[in-house]
Design a protein that fits this description.
The complex is a heterodimer.
Chain A (H helix, E strand, L loop, with lengths): L1 H28 L7 E4 L4 E4 L28 E4 L2 E4 L5 E5 L3 E6 L6 E10 L5 E7 L3 E2 L5 E2 L15 E2 L7 E8 L14 E2 L12 E6 L5 E11 L7 E13 L2
Antiparallel strand pairs in A: 1-2, 3-4, 5-7, 7-15, 8-14, 8-16, 9-10, 11-13, 12-15
Chain B lengths: L1 H7 L3 H7 L1 H17 L12 E6 L2 E6 L3 E11 L5 E9 L18 H5 L4 E4 L5 E2 L1 E4 L4 E10 L7 E10 L16 E19 L7 E7 L3 E2 L4 E9 L8 E7 L5 E6 L9 E4 L8 E3 L6 E10 L5 E11 L2 H25 L1
Parallel strand pairs in B: 2-10, 12-19
Antiparallel strand pairs in B: 1-3, 3-8, 4-7, 4-9, 5-6, 5-8, 9-10, 11-13, 13-16, 13-17, 14-15, 14-18, 18-19
Classes of the chains: A mainly beta, B alpha+beta.
Chain lengths: 249, 341
């Protein structure tokens, strides 16, 4: 009887010890949180919203299936006194995944890349998405982060070029098609970037996405890249990027 | 007895795990510890914009004086309200001749003057410079073109834009340390409807067939046709048409309908299918001489231009195969005949 009680007690002891050990090990070995990095002492504090450990574009594989509700069809012809209106082309829609990009606190020679998604359902003959910026990233006293000229100094709103060096500074973008090949063909290599056309300098819109094919939906990922030198003045830099969808006819 | 007392008096930690309640607590504690270590995303999904417009192109033919109205709908598919400014941009007809819109960088005053005659109104004739759309809201609007009798007869091509107004509220512009550099970019979207207005008396379209061709000799189908049309008229036109294919006996063996694409005034357009492929007769097996007659008609099916081309289909591989079979049979027959003799 005594030995039976002893056996039961010792098995419970073993189980209890195992659970405690497992809990302790999980506490020690499980990966630490990587939500934000904060360190400092009484004299300073560094707070980084997100640390970009892989500053190169990494395409996401998951494609969310967009859901669009059909717009009621309008009559093909509308006629009135001295006029005829023909409008038999079908509806189309355009969406961007977010309305702002937060690059966080910038660190010199550490490129930051952010992404957004563009989805378009096409009218009968395809469509295009045009883009431009209102100005370069600018702070209140008009100090700017210039648009990048890429590693070899050749990229512009019209021409894409490789940007991989951490010592190349500025702001630029690239476009990657998700389903159909709709992005500008200039972004052929994964590190090719372009400047946004600056409308304040009368630069014409850039064509970001062109779809001539009569496909239902196309999706693209836009990569926004920003890298600043040590000499960049502190402050809050802002600008606005516009995407406009225009149907073909 | 002493041993039993010793065991009974074994206390605390070990006896703690033997109670079922404590055992459950321990398991719960382990789970809490484990789940507490799983990172929870701290970034919240920012709501984007999703705009839908119908139709994508509006074609108006009008002879002043007139008060033309082209209805259209615009819908906000997102879960947040949007404020959309209404604007216009002039299309460059020469650069956009093949259907992909390119805007004029410096439009003339004449081209911009038409915008004075255009209003975006609702069914109660209330005019808008901008519109507010709530979540999932759809608005039915009209493009109203009011033209006086003395209006200059011309064509006007432009894109009517609905562009989101920039909102700074979504940006957190606070900065904790004055030595920090922070950057934000606002993303705004817009959507457009192409509008084509022909002002003046309706005239017969003056279309010229710039190019209508296919390869002269081919082995098999399908047969792609190269087709370019020039609009020499004053106004844009959306012609209809077909290609009728006849065999060497004059029988109609195929008909291909042309897509109804707009050809802007004084431009040449390559006519392609909706999927931007050449117009194609899809018949595979072809032999002999064929004629292809292109017939372009206006909206009343009245022929305005036509051209006929000829092509030959010689299935070389099939003929060579047949020839080999015939020679083989002849050879066998000859050998058999010799043996019988």
């Amino acid at each position: 009887m005594i030995s039976n009680n002893n056996r039961q007690t010792s098995s419970k002891v073993r189980l209890g010890t195992t659970i405690v050990t497992f809990s302790a090990l999980s506490l020690i070995l499980s990966p630490s949180l990587a939500m934000a990095a904060t360190s400092g002492n009484s004299q300073f504090m560094i707070n980084v919203d997100t640390i970009d450990t892989d500053p190169q574009p990494t395409p996401k594989t998951a494609i969310p299936s967009p859901q669009f509700t059909p717009v009621p069809t309008l009559p093909e012809f509308t006629t009135g006194l001295n006029y005829t209106v023909n409008q038999n082309d079908r509806a189309f829609s355009f969406s961007i995944s977010q309305n702002s990009i937060d690059f966080g606190i910038l660190s010199a020679n550490t490129p930051v890349i952010r992404t957004s998604e563009i989805t378009m359902t096409h009218p009968l003959y395809g469509a295009q998405v045009l883009t431009f910026e209102d100005k370069p990233l600018t702070k209140e006293d008009n100090v700017i982060i210039p648009d990048t000229t890429c590693d070899n100094g050749t990229c512009s709103p019209e021409v894409a070029a490789e940007w991989s060096s951490t010592f190349t500074y500025g702001f630029g973008y690239r476009c990657e098609s998700k389903a159909k090949d709709v992005c500008d063909k200039m972004f052929i290599r994964s590190k090719d970037f372009k400047q946004y056309p600056d409308i304040s300098r009368d630069k014409p819109f850039s064509t970001l996405i062109t779809s001539l094919k009569n496909t239902n939906t196309t999706q693209s990922t836009i990569y926004y890249k920003l890298n600043v030198p040590k000499s960049q003045q502190p402050g809050i830099y802002q600008n606005t990027i516009t995407f406009v969808a225009v149907p073909n006819f | 007895m002493r041993k039993r007392l010793k065991e009974q008096s074994k206390p605390s930690l070990i006896t703690f795990s033997t109670s079922p309640m404590n055992f459950a607590c321990l398991c719960l504690l382990s789970c809490i510890i484990l789940f507490a270590r799983i990172p929870i995303p701290t970034t919240y999904a920012q709501e984007g914009t999703n705009l839908e417009i119908s139709p994508s192109n509006i074609y108006i033919e009008t002879n002043p004086p007139s008060d033309a109205r082209a209805p259209f709908t615009i819908k906000n598919n997102s879960d947040r309200s949007v404020s959309l400014a209404i604007g216009y941009k002039v299309i460059d007809p020469l650069e956009s001749a093949n259907g992909r819109v390119i805007f004029k960088e410096n439009p003339s005053n004449t081209e911009k003057e038409i915008f004075k005659n255009i209003q975006i109104v609702d069914e109660k004739n209330v005019s808008y410079d901008s519109i507010e759309l709530g979540p999932k809201q759809e608005k039915q609007l009209q493009m109203r073109v009011i033209l006086p009798q003395q209006q200059f007869q011309n064509d006007y091509y432009f894109t009517l834009f609905f562009q989101e107004s920039p909102s700074q509220s979504s940006l957190n512009t606070s900065i904790d340390n004055e030595e920090d550099q922070k950057a934000y970019t606002s993303l705004i979207s817009g959507i457009g409807i192409n509008s084509f207005i022909a002002i003046g008396q309706k005239t017969t379209p003056q279309l010229e067939i710039e190019e209508f061709s296919t390869s002269w000799v081919r082995q098999t189908g399908p047969v792609p046709f190269s087709l370019k049309l020039t609009n020499a008229g004053l106004h844009y036109t959306r012609p209809q048409g077909k290609i009728v294919i006849r065999n060497m006996f004059g029988n109609v063996v195929g008909t291909v309908a042309l897509p109804k694409r707009a050809i802007l005034a004084s431009t040449t357009r390559e006519v392609l299918t909706e999927s931007q492929d050449p117009i194609t007769w899809k018949n595979i097996f072809l032999i002999g001489s064929y004629t292809a007659e292109l017939i372009i008609t206006d909206n009343n099916d009245y022929p305005i231009a036509s051209r006929t081309i000829r092509f030959f289909a010689i299935p070389f591989i099939l003929l060579v195969g047949l020839l080999i079979i015939v020679i083989g049979i002849g050879f066998i027959v000859r050998r058999t005949g010799k043996k019988h003799k």
